[in-house]
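Lab channel / #folding
Pinned by the channel admin:
"Please post every new chain as: sequence first, then the structure tokens as a reply. Keep commentary short and put observations after the output so the thread stays searchable."

First post following the new format, from NK:
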Amino acid sequence: MKTIGNIIVFVFLCLSCYIKAQQDESMKLPVNKAEINKATNLYKTDNTKEILTTFLRTALNNITSKEKSFSLNTTLYAIDSLFHLSKGNPSDFIKQTSFDFKLKANEQNSISSIYFGFTTAIVNNKDLKKDSLDSKDFAALEKNVFIQADIKKSLHALRIKKEEISNQKIDSAKTQINSILQSLNKSSKYEDPCFTQIKINKRLRALFSKVNLSPDESHLKQIGFDKVLEGLEDKEINEVQTDIDGELEALKDYINTKELEALNKKWDDAKKEGNFMMLTNDINQINFDRDVFRGTDDEDYKRIVKSYREGKDPLKMLYKEVAETYSRRMLWTISPAMEYDRENKQGIYNVATKMTVGISNKLQRKPWEIEANASFKVSKDTLKPATNYDNQVGLINFGVNKVLLENKDNEPKMEFKFFTQLEHQFGKTSIFPKSIFSLNSTLRINLFKTIWLPITVKYDPDNGNLFGFFSIAANLSD
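Reply from TO:
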């Protein structure tokens, strides 16, 4: 048994060292893949996150039972993020491998054992890894990205056209004001400087209205022109004209910069919220047939264009669809661990494997999952005083997990799992019975954002025993 423990420690150390090597081999994920993985984590069930955490998971387990525990599961990616170990993008390996730490307590609430191990994915089709994005999904995403990029380019082209119209209005006002100034007496004393200022200010007010300045903006700009026109009767016309021209050119820059910043902000807000309603007036002015990437599927193109015209974000909708589809795929993990029994002063060795997969990859509300688990644990037979490893328990369970409640974004908020379990004693021990079959169910309720309350009920039909206990868990994402 000491040899087994040494092997587990050796494997654990190898995995720790492997992080650095994997960082060099990791391939940079395109932005769409990273976004899909983030969305996929939202659609994963809490049952899946218990098998392999997406970032960090803490839990108080079996609070009402005799053997309660505190567990902490953290991915290598979470550790990497905390200590900034990676130079570039993290590898797939460190995102799908977690360290598992657990403190177990006895009936007196004192620590009875310390558990330490790791979980890594044998098969993880739920998360996108390197080139694992299906060609069909990639083509659809690529097409949507091209269309969205062309829409943004077309919106900027419309802005430039509006900018040219605005500049023409300013140039027209400049010509009119210069004409007013030139019509004045060329001498040092003007015939009616006060009347001249009134005429110029009238032209400026009309200009401010045409270029859509707000009352506050008009007032601030007027102050600048008033300073130029102040003491008009004592200034040279050329000096006043130059200063007026300077103020009007500054007005051009101000309006153009404001419109550019406003469009960029609307665009960024629309992408963040998945809502293009603020841009629909401009979007409906775009000539899609001429300026926007079409591709080959006309019906799909029309659907995408229709979504944008209605203020929706088809690219974000597609991200969610792809992410939700991937969240239903297979996850299969293996978890070797070692545990120190403080009461019996010896080690406990355990290995477990778990598999879960959605019954259907198709998009459907409140999905089903199939789960199959197996584990083998070697520990002391406490009926024998000497050190021994005769308590050798194998466990197999099989069941289904059903999402009962989702929020408006289709994220799981309540789940119910029913599973059967067979426990068999393989060791040379007097523990009886050798095999125990039980029916089990777990109801998981999302209390608040990342906080879940799993309530488990176990029934032993052979002996008529019924056990119930609850836990509380928190899942943290990156």
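NK: The CA atoms of residues 56 and 301 lie 40 Å apart.
TO: also worth noting, Residues 1-31 have pLDDT under 50 and may be disordered.
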